[in-house]
Amino acid sequence: MCNSSAKSTGHGKSYATAFMIILTNFIKTLVISTLLLTAFKIHVVQRLRRLAKRLQEQNWENPTAIGLDDLKWPFQKKGDEIHEIEMAINEAIAVIGKNIEQLQTAVQASTRMAELGTLSAGIAHEINNPLAIISGNISMLDKTIKQLPHEMPLLLKYSNQIDKSIKRISKIILGLRSFSRDGSKDPFERVTVKKILDDIIPICQAALLNKKVELEVQVDDESLLLDCRSAQIEQILMNLLNNAADAVASLDVRWVRLHVYKNLEGQTVFTVTDSGPGIPEEIRKKIFVPFFTTKPVGSGTGLGLAIVHGIVRQHQGSIEVNSNSPNTQFIIKFPSYEVKNVA
Asked: Cα–Cα 20 to 30 A to 247, which of 52, 152, 220, 278?
């Protein structure tokens, strides 16, 4: 009996010891696994999540390299495999950014040329008229000169008409030169609103007149200044005015109004309004999306307003369609000239 009791007690202790060893090893394994999983989560999963978040937040219109300093593996000086992935992504982002910049430049140039093509008929008509006036007045001068000196006032009248016609042609040509030039690489300069409008209004008036559309221009203060690339601001206005003229070309009442003023926040505001009934909400939501267009096939690429939107953003401004206006109206706001703009 004693031996049996002793054996039973010995087996019980052995089982208890084995159980404790197994339990201890299980706890150790659990602790080590938990630590490994935590380390994996912190230094792999969380890093990948942060990397994914930064890629999701990336502005692909103007992509920038993602920051790497807080994503490095902390226990070694050199980057690990994830860091190498991040480096490769940054190299890809740099290539994408360069390609986007080249594409934007090419598209802007193509859009400018397309717009000039649509304006060419009106411009040719507007230039031919002054030339016809010059030709007619020169003929009258030839006849009048023979009757000098008593016809001197009439001679001066013809001379003044010729001078005005030449200046008109000169303004149109200067405007064409300014508009057709690629200004995307120009430095930001302080330019008066008057200078910008002087370059483009003669061209727009010629084009709109050819489409039998009346253009009204109201500038509250011509001394208003913009810190800008003037060639790009001219492109914005040319695009909006030309689009407005196309939109009302089939209406009975055809007019386009450009108004420039400074609002209470000190911003320089351009509004382009036409006699159209406005833009439906479903179209307003997509109007600045690249390649979206309401024009017939072959009449537009859908890139004009997307480019306008991009240029306005480069100038730290905003553009929107005024849903409260009874007519179609675009509102463009630029910061006051004291704010230094950076491309």
From this structure: 220
